[in-house]
Amino acid sequence: MASHKMERLKQTVKFFLTCAISVCMVLFGFLASADNAPEVVVYTSVDDVFARPLAKQFEKQSGVRVRLVSDTEETKSTGLLNRLIAEKKRPRADVFWSGDPVRAAVLKDKGVAAPYHSPAAKGLPVRFSDANGYWTGFSARARIILFNKNEVTEQQRPASIMDLLNPSFSGKVCMANPLFGTTSMQAAALFELLGDEKAKQFFTRLKKNKLQLLSSNGEVRRRVSSGACAYGVTDTDDAYTALRDGKPVGMVFPDNDPAKSGIEGLGVLIVPNAAVLIAQAPHPDNARKFIDFLLSPESEAMLARGEAAQIPLRPGLAGPEIFPALNKLHPMRVDYSQLAEKLQTLSRGFLKDWVADF
Amino acid sequence: MEFADWLFSGDFNAAIVRSLLVAISVLLFAIAIGLPMGTATAIYAFRGRRLFLALLALPLMVPSFLWAIGLSQILDLAHITLDNKVLRGLAPVYVFAAFATPLAVFAAFLATKSLSGTQIDAYRLAGSDGWVFARLMKRALPITFLTTLLAAIMTLSDPGPGQIFGFSGAASEILVSFSALYDFDLARRQSLILALVAIVVSLPFIVWYGPRLSSALLAKETTASRLAHNKKVRRFAPMVYILMLLFLLGMPFLGLIKPVLHGFALDYAFHELIRTVANTLFYALSAGFIGTLIAIGVVMLFAGKKRAILIITLALLIMVVPSSFLAVSIIQLGSSLSASWDWLFRSRLIVGLALGIHFSPVAILLVLKRYSAVSDSWFDAARISGVSMIVFYWRIIAPFLAPALALSVLIISLLASSEIGTVLLLRPPGEDSFPLSIFTVMANASESLVSTLCLLYIGLSAILLILFWHVLVRKSA
Amino acid sequence: MSLKQIVLQKVDKRFGDVMALQQLSFRVGSGRHLAIIGSSGCGKSTLLRLIAGLDRPDKGEILINDELVSVAGKIIRAPHQRGVGLVFQDLALWPNLSVFENVALVLAAKNIARSELRTRVNEALQLCGVAALRNRKPSEISGGQQQRLALARAIVSRPDFLLLDEPFSGLDLITKQDLIKQITNLAQQQGITLVLVTHDPFEAAELAQDLIILEQGGIVESGTFDALLKHSATPIMQQFRRHIRDVRGV
Questions:
Q1: pLDDT category, A25, cuts 50, 70, 90?
Q2: Cα(B318)–Cα(B309) distance, rounded to whole angstroms?
Q3: In whole angstroms, what is the distance from residue B333 CA to residue A86 CA?
Q4: Which residue spans within chain A are E strands per DSSP?
Q5: CB–CB contact C78 B378 (8 Å)
Q6: B443 CB near a chain A CB, below 8 Å?
Q7: Residue B307 is part of a domain; what is its CATH number?
Q8: Which residues neighbour A193 within 8 Å (Cβ) at sequence distance 6 or greater?
Q9: Residues B229 and B340 in one domain
Q10: For chain A, what percentages of helix, strand and coil (3-state, to nearest 5) are there?
């Protein structure tokens, strides 16, 4: 019987291989299409709806086709940054357009980014960019406190992030998971500024004050909009979305008056976009062109006008009407290039436990 | 108290236990509901039977995050806050159950359908309707259990619902290792531990159940029995189905309806649909074909009664590997190979390949079931007649397996069409799928836009399903 | 011209610890009808599989028409090159092919012109009495018709030897008699040598001139059927003898 089985096995393998090879050949024949038009591959963590119009504009101006790969800041995926890191040996992407400088700094740490001092960066404040040119900051969001107008009176509006520890805010505040996205950046910034001990105290007391931990900034926006939660720590773009949808919400730029908290350096956390040139990018010339385009005053203006509602970093450019201009804000004193490293330490230790025990 | 403290600590082992608790709850819930429903649907006649079954496949086509969004919007409307650890664990159980219960229903349905009319008649001669029903459920249990076990194991590696409801399971921990720490080695280790634990936990069931499982899997197919009539079933079954559909589909659906009451964003939604429809279909179908091809290979190489358990264990192993882990490994491999491999590693096909591998266990079970009905003597008859093996497989085995293969392609395509993680990581630049296009706008787009996209997707899925069912039913009639 | 015969010389076949056939030697001459009887599990089917070349012997050699076709551990002539037809115990009909296709596929493998193929298939179906069912699937015809189809498939390639593995099990008496008559006629018309494997001496009596009684993988007795009917000491033949006497006594 054994010989019989062997015979059958051999025949089976032969047949299966023939089938597999022919199917593969047909499929690959169908897929193989050569296309040599000039192009640039852009990975972005900025939402597709915001990134696509800019990509279209660039295509119109330069004749270079943009192949866009979008991600989301919602925290359910493994994310594009992993793809960039995994592709490091032979990258596919030319540019990474990051929604925040922390991810850009991670790419620098991992050796995925290449330095590029764009001539188009002229006029952008240098403190929002990497000193060595591994990433360049432009149009920004800011961390704010969103509140529901039906639940919160004029007097109950917080002025500082520290106010959220006040017993009168107990059970009324929500925030996204600080292991991800801009919330994680804010956590790292607070640790940098306050020092580990004070920052840990802040987070522990926040939890004791019955903070509601949500999955994403989008969720924070939804909860505050519906009134299920009176206050939410989130970004300006979420505030813009809620207001555009006609939700009864208002916003506070916390610590814009540094005297309120009495903590040296505390202020509004500015979250600039960051453009990163990928090391060994397959289309380096087009990559530089695209970065030049992103950093131009025209792009900043577009991002300010559109649904993205970003605050331009260049002085003198008109921003979204509902937000104050950058020079009217008191930014938090923070070294953006340090945040990525800080965040990784926190994510392995304190913050991970803090989230797990919620 | 100490255990409770540990259970909700940042320890990865605790996260695994939390995930296992969710998976087991999903398993129990799905079997408790799915087994009687599937069995009853297989043997009793009632109104709308086929339509109900078709609609029940809908949750399989819809990404779990849509369910989670819907539910979270409902909770939001009702001003319910999940401020309790146990509640936060229950929400993912609900979302996962929406996907596991239909699978359990289908498994019980098919298992009971594979009994012959005379077998069922023999039961009827021996006892009351209730007793017969209980016996039939017992007969259908092994297959239902195995299918649901696969679904439960899939929940271990899906971080989506847990993330949305603030429940941190093992999949979330792996996600953190990937997305917050960018530590592939850690993620890899954690994925392996999770896989091992899942195997260790499910192996006793497999071994204990093994003989019954393989005999149920390898049972020869028989001619179908006629449907029985039972007044109670005819009256109550549609009601149960409607309740079930409301529970599984209705709640999240309502959550999605509310935002569009202020207006649809149809222009944008249709534009996105047209941009992505070809890729969505391509990813789904190529996954279906590749997964089925893998299944054919595995089954033919390992076929044999004694090896059924080996195959089942292998299937579990494949299923338990988180898809993101597989995807990142594929990217790394593709990047370390020369550009001459890009036609595979950087094409759209790689998405189908990864999804096909991920979902191949479902196909393996289906193909194994059918292949076991192939008689050894068919091969001998071919050999003695000098029929070449290629002709033999093409003319005899392939047509014989065809119904199972078609079903397998369909089911994998359904499951793959709603996958996000793999497509996000592996798609070539610019080649999005429709669920992915929803996923990438949902953070900041308006609620009505997100809901319009979701409803469009669910609606199209439902239409496709009903059309398909219609064609299938007509063909088989 | 070589003699049409099958010769087995000291053939052994084992499956794991079980010795299926042991030191088996015999010869079937041209045009003879040989029946091999024995209880189930005595190695009958294995013997047919060895002759057909579906399994290889562990020891000994097998010759067909004076040509070495199998030696220890090796198949020299592939099954389809031995001039052998086989009706399987479970018939092994290919379920998704029609009656016609089941038979035609055998010839299609032999590079025969289309028109000749059709003629020969029809001829075989006609001979076995299933020509009218040509477009049906095996599952759509009765048990007796399935058996005839299996027979048609086995003879369509005009084999020198027809091996029958319990081909009459599950048939009613009339159908069985009918089929036996048909096989006998066929064998005579086409000069086919028959090897029948069965546990039933009645079937052997109807079809065979020569008889081998197999027990636990070895030949207990062999000779012409008539001689063994008279002198056999094996329980099975004694029982058979008694039965015939009783029936005649009635």
A1: low
A2: 14
A3: 9
A4: 39-44, 65-70, 95-98, 113-114, 136-148, 173-176, 212-214, 231-235, 249-252, 270-278
A5: no
A6: yes
A7: 1.10.3720.10
A8: A199, A263, A265, A266, A332, A333, A334
A9: no
A10: 45, 15, 35
Kindly list the residues from chain C whose CB atom is less than 8 angstroms away from the CB atom of residue A8.
none
Q: pTM for the complete prediction?
A: 0.79
User: Phi/psi zone of residue A133: left (φ > 0), alpha (ψ -120 to 50 degrees), beta?
Assistant: left
Residue B161 lies in a domain: yes
In chain A the domains, ranked by start, together with CATH numbers, are 39-140+271-326 (3.40.190.10), 141-269+349-356 (3.40.190.10)
Would you call A347 and B176 a contact, using CB atoms and an 8 Å cutoff? yes
Give B211 or B441, the one with higher predicted confidence.
Answer: B441
Please give the C-alpha separations between residue B88 and each of B17, B80, B83, B92, B339, in angstroms, as whole numbers: 15, 12, 7, 7, 46
Per the CB < 8 Å rule, is C92 touching B383?
no
Determine the structural domain holding residue B227 and report its residue range. Answer: 1-261
Specify the number of domains making up chain B.
2
**CA torsion angle for B108, B221, B367, B369 (degrees, to 10)?**
60
Residue A34 has pLDDT above 50, yes or no: no
**Chain A hits for C15, Cβ within 8 Å:** 1-2
Give pLDDT, residue A33.
Answer: 47
Reply yes or no on whether the pLDDT at B468 is more than 80.
no
Instruction: Select the more confidently predicted residue: C133 or B160.
Output: C133
Same domain? B243 vs B350: no
- Same domain? For B18 and B166 the reply is yes
Nearest CA in chain B to A342: B181
Is there a single domain that holds both residue B31 and residue B132?
A: yes
Interface predicted TM-score (ipTM) = 0.88
Best mutation target among B440, B441, B450, B452 (most A Cβ atoms within 10 Å) is B440
pLDDT tens per residue across span A83-139? 899 899 999 999 999 999 998 998 999 999 999 999 999 999 999 999 999 999 999
- B240 in any annotated domain: yes
Q: Which of C46, C80, C137 to mutate to test the interface with B (most CBs of B within 10 A)?
A: C80
Q: For residues B306 and B408, state if they share a domain.
A: yes
pLDDT at B424: 82
Q: Identify whether residues B80 and B212 lie together within a single domain.
A: yes
Q: Are residues B302 and B249 in the same domain?
A: no
- Are B385 and C53 inside 8 Å of each other by CB? no
Chains in contact with chain A (at least 3 beta-carbon pairs closer than 8 A): B, C
C241–chain A nearest CA distance, Å:
36
Residue A211 has pLDDT above 50, yes or no: yes
Low-confidence winner among B25-29, B222-226, C193-197 (lowest mean pLDDT): B222-226
Distance from CA of C194 to the nearest CA of A (A): 24
Residues of C within 8 A of A4 (CB-CB) are 49, 54-55
Q: How far is A259 from chain B (nearest CA, A)?
A: 33
pLDDT in tens, C105-130: 988 878 888 899 999 999 899 888 88
Given CB atoms, is A180 within the 8 Å cutoff of chain B?
yes
